[in-house]
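Fold this complex.
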Amino acid sequence: LAKTTQPISMDSYEGQEVNITCSHNNIATNDYITWYQQFPSQGPRFIIQGYKTKVTNEVASLFIPADRKSSTLSLPRVSLSDTAVYYCLVADKGSGYALNFGKGTSLLVTP
Amino acid sequence: KAGVTQTPRYLIKTRGQQVTLSCSPISGHRSVSWYQQTPGQGLQFLFEYFSETQRNKGNFPGRFSGRQFSNSRSEMNVSTLELGDSALYLCASSLSQTGIGVNEKLFFGSGTQLSVL
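Structure:
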């Protein structure tokens, strides 16, 4: 069963740039890559979505190489409030397009 | 516009019982999907409903079932509860018309925390 692979956890200091990479070797051809953020006791919240190259919004940037087998979420100048779990989401072609969030990356930002 | 509403927020049951969880999607959203979240397995997809029909299903036993009503509200049922069913159950709605995929933004509720004793 194909799945996404992300680091389990990352640590950062306030003000630094954080890059979280996700591997998704079995991504479906026509599907996008979407990142979500989740705080404790809340549901995930949409951050950014892209298909290829680079996408930027007011919160983050998403870098996707030409082969689309990985993607990198970039959070500029993180603050304490960015401490959360980040999920990379792609359609899992091998399981009939069932969504696969995986375990995400737990980011801890400290002063 | 109101967000996705899940009730109840917390629930305690004993093994062997059954439970029904409710989800009201954002107005205008016809797709509702359900997820189980545990520390060990992460966030796993259960199933998705659109226009009262189940369109997609994850890899869970038949004890987990759901339905959707004509107003797009959805319920999820777990029968014969096991200790391992203790989890945060999340529902999400989207504007998806053709299949949940990942191309449609998902809007999640705050979840129902189920504890099975």
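Chain B touches chain A at residues 4, 33, 35, 41-45, 56-59, 90, 92, 99-103, 105-111, 113 (CB under 8 Å).
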